[in-house]
Amino acid sequence: MKNILEVNGLKTYFHTFKGVVKAVDDVSFSLKPGEILGLVGESGGGKSVTGFSLIKLIEEPGKIESGEILFNGTDIVKLSEREMSGIRGKDIAMIFQDPMTSLNPVYTVGKQMEEVLVLHQSHLSKQERKERCIELLKDVGISNPESRLKNYPHQFSGGMRQRVVIAIALACNPKLIIADEPTTALDVTIQAQILKLMMKLVKEHNCALILVTHDLAVVSEVADKINVMYCGKIVETGTRDDIMFNHVHPYTKGLIGSIPKLDQSQNRLETIEGIVPNMFQLPKGCNFAPRCKHVDKKCLEVEPVISEVGKLHHVACHHPKGGA
Amino acid sequence: MLKYILKRLGQLAIVLFIVSLLVFFLTSIVGNPLDLLVRENATPQEVEIARKYLGLDKPLYVQYFRFITNALKGDFGLSYMYHQSALKMIAERFPATLEMVLVAMTISIIGGVGFGVYAGAYPKRKSSKFVMTCSIAGISLPSFWIGMVMIYVFGLKLGWFPVSGRGEVGTIFGIETSLATLDGWRHIILPALTLGMGSVASMMRLTRAGMQENMKQDYVKFARAKGVKNHKVLFGHALKNTLIPVVTIFGMQLGSLIAFTTITETIFAWPGMGKLIIDSINSADRPIISAYILFVAVMFVVINFLVDMLYTVIDPRIDLQ
Amino acid sequence: MSELALKESKLNKMLQSETWYNYKHSWTAKIGSFLIISIVLIAIIGPLFVPQNPYNLADLALEDAYLPPVWEDGGRAPFLLGTDQQGRDILSAIVYGSRVSLFIGIVGTLLASTFGISMGLLSGYFGGRVDSIIMRIADVQLSFPSLLIALFLMSLIGQGVVNILIALLLVGWVRYARTVRGATLSVIQNEYIEATKVIGLSNLRVIVKHVLPNVLTSIIVLSTIQVGGFILTEATLSFLGMGVPITRPSLGMLCSNGFSVLYSGLWWVSIFPGLYIMMIVFGINLMGDFLRDEFNPKLK
């Protein structure tokens, strides 16, 4: 099966007055149609910026410096803004984090849903569009869809708004959906519902999904592959089982270790010592070195390169699993 | 909805009540009205007669009551200078002021909102930056100075427009107005431009600020993620959000325009309310002053009320149920 | 660290701050501050350099009257910007007049801000009745244009510098009060969980200590713009004859004087003072704009 997405050496830098922030620094990965990729890491790790880079929605002072993003064989980095707007919403769709602010408060939900159909499926008549919108709302589990179309966003609860956002994302049957922390802003009870809904729909439409999140627990349930990012770089990547059970990078170990275990008794929550470094002054050598338990002289001097650990399992570390 | 309207009307009444108290107090009590009526060396008996005549021997609340009932009938007394009904004089001059305000308002909406949206939508362009610097200059200009420059350059030096007075009056739809004649327009252009200049600059800045703020919102980014093209994002999404608060600002601008007619009418000898009140203040013509204050207070209160109502209608987020 | 070293490091911090960086790159801010500094300097030491003190009658000579600016026919040095109908040098008049205008603008702002901040603190702190009354007055006041309020006040109490200051205070306190009240309320809600109303002076001090740093940036921006606004208001009032007395002419009054001879073609008597007013307020507004953008978190 051919890859739906191939990212090679993506670099997205932010040029601020204080200096350059290498938010995404030489990131490479690929995705097959219908696959679910989890992009995890702490806040500021570069995962959201990666997501936005894939759809080329990086605003100043950020810029995609170099790299390739091959979507269905085409390098979209080279595409013009006009060509990109033909892809956004149609072939690649995005779900934002905060449903309270994603929707325009002064237009009805129906109008905002229709908008994406008007743009990318202009062959539809007005009546057909309306029917499609109703169908979409039904799919995401909103009752009374016909009357809901005339409502404004503030008349929906947070969870329901996110359902609308998901509906908009699926409207044109995209091949790839990028979901940026889709459940973080929701109540805990709703989170599971929304996640379940997303998984169901994504499978039904055979759509690839990149799930950007800091919540490893979420990712462990649904992802096929996982990329662990730290300070703009991928430190470990592999299948779900690889990462959850056979991880080798100390950071990954720390992340997994800090998930509270409900079925065992714990005295204390495990944490990763130290704090995320200042992005303007990244350490020489490995970015994680200052916080790593297995650090040695080499780690402080030389940046680790990606090396193979298993069939689809790669890591960037001088001493994976603490060994030599 | 009805409850809300009633509540607002109630607040309106309170405000007018307070203003009427102030006007009563300031114009009937402060200073000695007697001085204007009696000779300098009047005898105590003459003073007493005058006092009884003016009702000044009655307790304050009675005087106030008389004042209010008269005011509600439209009777503010006769102007000291012109010996006509104070309120009638103001009402007669109101149309002239209204004309100028309307023309200035139109200029400021078209110019202000137009330029503001442009500068907010494309903030990095050189033309936008130039427009914005002009707007800062615009709000820094003293209104009277603009008037003088206009008079000197366009009136005296170039001779394009007359520099004082109102033009000929004609009728449109049965209303008498100088906007119906070419001569009327020739006379109104300079004063209206002078009056509107500050307002254009204000509206420009506020609209631009609104556009900029809205452009940074998440829903704009989301619209882009849907594939909406740039100009549609600007004028479809951001604009509507920007225009809604412009309505309230517009209400304030209207009040400001009315206030500044005092200057513009004085400079251009325009026969409106503004000139009347300035002349009356200078000649201590109390009946006209009190009539003007209340007239204008009613106007502002009503304007604010209407703007509030308009706002609740156009902003879908406001749910009065 | 020694005192000097401490001060130096503070200065360093300021120089490296984002605000300074933005300032260096903003030509509007630089022009604005240049204008302000120049104008203040002119006001302070200007009188030493101008040809005459226009309010000292002994300095004036009628044969110098009606002179146009030096670059026009008939103009003559040292009356660079011309003279008025009594031989007053316009340039000197502007320098002296600007002192009055600036004085009123700055002192007026100090008074209005002090009063407004106090009202806001009281309103937020005491809440209840006091708060209602103060805010009600503020709302009513805000629904009327400040020029009209100032106009009627002045017509009532008469001309005079002190009177103008009083009028400006009464017109300008509202915005400060509102801003500070909002900040006070949010501080109170943060710092005290459920009210056991222990009202003591010590509590008021604590609240003031917490509130002021929060509102500092808003007050700075507000005050900067207020100075410009007051200068314009005073100029307008003086132009209408309801501002400063003839003995202490401000720039507005100079314009008023010049207006009467404008129609005879003596444009310089009114145009130059007005232009100077514009430059003062323009400089202030440029700075005010810069500061407002700097301190506005929504635009970051």
**Structural class per helix/strand content of chain A?**
alpha/beta
Arrangement of strands in the largest sheet of chain A: 6-7-8-3-9-10-12-11
Largest protein-protein interface:
B-C, 43 and 41 residues
Low-confidence stretches of chain A: none
Instruction: Give me the oligomer status.
Output: heterotrimer
Number of strands of chain C: 0
Mean pLDDT of chain C: 84
- Tell me the span between the first and last alpha carbons of chain C: 34 Å
Strand portion of chain A: 15-25%
Note the main sheet of chain C.
none
Beta-sheet strand percentage of chain C? under 5%
The number of helices of chain A is 12
Report helical residue fraction of chain C: over 70%
| Unreliable stretches of chain C | 193-197
- Fraction of residues in helix of chain A: 25-40%
In short:
With about 325 residues, chain B is mostly helical.
What does this structure look like?
With 324 residues, chain A is α/β, with parallel strands linked by helices. In chain A, 33% of the residues lie in helices and 23% in strands. The model of chain A has no long low-confidence stretch (mean pLDDT 86). Chain B is an all-alpha fold and 321 residues long. A two-stranded antiparallel sheet of chain B has the order 1-2. In chain B, helix 7 crosses helix 10. The longest helix of chain B is centred in the last third of the chain and has 39 residues. The longest helix of chain C is centred in the C-terminal third of the chain and has 39 residues. Chain C is globular, with a radius of gyration of 23 Å. Chain C has 300 residues and is mostly helical. The two termini of chain C are 34 Å apart. Classes of the chains: A alpha/beta (324), B mainly alpha (321), C mainly alpha (300). Chains in contact: A-B, B-C. Chains B and C meet through helix 1, helix 6, helix 7, helix 10 and helix 11 of B and helix 6, helix 8, helix 9 and helix 10 of C.
